[in-house]
Amino acid sequence: MDVLGATVTYDVMRNIKFRAAYQYVDIESENLYAGDNISYSNGSYSCSLASLYNAPHVQRNQAWYAFTDYDLDLLSIKAKTTFGLYGSSYSRRQHQDNTLFKGLGSFPVSADPVYVARPTFTNGAQPYFRQQQLDQTNWIIGEDIAFNEQWSLLAGASLADIKATNFNTNGTVSSYFDKTRLTPTASLIYKPLPWLTGYGTYIQSLENGGTASTSFSSLPVTNASQALSPTTSEQVEIGAKANVSQILLTAALFQIDKTNTYYKSNGGSYTFINDGRQLHRGLEMTATGKILGDLTVTGGFTLLDAKIAQTNTFYLLGQPPSGSAKKHGEALRRILPALRAGADIDRRLQLCRPAGRQCFCADECARDRMATLLRDRRHRSTL
């Protein structure tokens, strides 16, 4: 893996600041996968084994941003304007015979283990070709206005453009998507007490439609490695945070309306598709605090009610989306004093949440998309 990155900050004037960053990552990888499917018929269970090999392929990721911040104080009102551009580019090169899927047989389920011979794969001998190209550009403007010690407003807009191109092995275009949308963001923040903050937020975003994997549930995917059309999502959230005895407590009610994306079964294979809309409603609560000296611990949980609200597949209507959980928990500990953990919400309420929830601060969105350059990732576990 090759990684290159740089950041630049420049104080143009006392109240004007310019900042920019760039990251380049080149990753070459290959994957060998084995899995099983268990089925039931006529009172007995059987297990089918399969193996898949993805030959060496190269993924190239580039991301960048350039922002200008302008601070203005007018009597009791303090305002900060952010304007700029952020974007990303992703390309994938792979062999024309990149993926090979092999069935290893079907066996009755019993207490005794079943051993099969390691399969031999011969794919990866044909030339490379560019299989996919994804490009995203966002022009943003945001306002952070503090009217007084209690009331403040975050508001902004993003002109987002997403292009997704899939290629055939001979280099011709198999599918092309280009979608542009102006998306608004707003958050009203109220601080009745020095240790208590409440907020209400609305977010709209344009997102990549996702890319199909080469296999799903140990079966091949018919549109493997193909990108789907960009989609839009909306989020509404109300919440509060409180600092009590050096412990940060947060609570939030949220609703997310997003595209229903899943793997549709074809019998012996799957197809990755967009079909209708998902509605996610939930409650999230977290706590972050220092237990001993430099030891910081974060814990929390999310109660989620997720369902498919619109679909062309009648029997899926009202059902939970694929991969959603009713309960979600997380725990994280940090021992380095310079690092902070978990759901720390400062005065600007820069939030990034699980279950597809979006950042609503445009500046944070840009930096979150360059996560490996600008912030660490948290490990989550689903209950």
Keywords:
two-stranded antiparallel sheet; mainly beta; 15-stranded antiparallel β-sheet; 2 helices; Maltoporin, Chain A; 383 residues
Task: Give a structural overview.
With 383 residues, this protein is an all-beta fold. It has a single domain, classed as TonB-dependent receptor, beta-barrel domain (Maltoporin, Chain A). It is 3% helix and 66% strand. The strands form 2 sheets. The chain has a 15-stranded antiparallel beta sheet that branches. It has a two-stranded antiparallel sheet with strand order 10-11. The longest helix is centred in the C-terminal third of the chain and has 7 residues, at 362-368. The model is unreliable at 336-383 (pLDDT under 50).
Proportion of β residues?
over 45%
- Name the helix and strand elements from N-terminus to C-terminus, one letter apiece: EEEEEEEEEEEEEEEEHHE
Kindly state the number of beta strands.
17
Pairing-aware structural class of the strands and helices? mainly beta
What would you give as the CATH superfamily?
A: TonB-dependent receptor, beta-barrel domain
Distance from first to last alpha carbon:
33 Å
CATH class: Mainly Beta
Q: Overall 3D geometry?
A: globular
Could you tell me the radius of gyration in angstroms?
A: 24 Å
Q: Taking all residues together, what is the mean pLDDT?
A: 84
Query: What's the helical proportion of residues?
Result: under 10%
Q: pLDDT below 50 for ≥5 consecutive residues: which ranges?
A: 336-383
Number of helical elements: 2
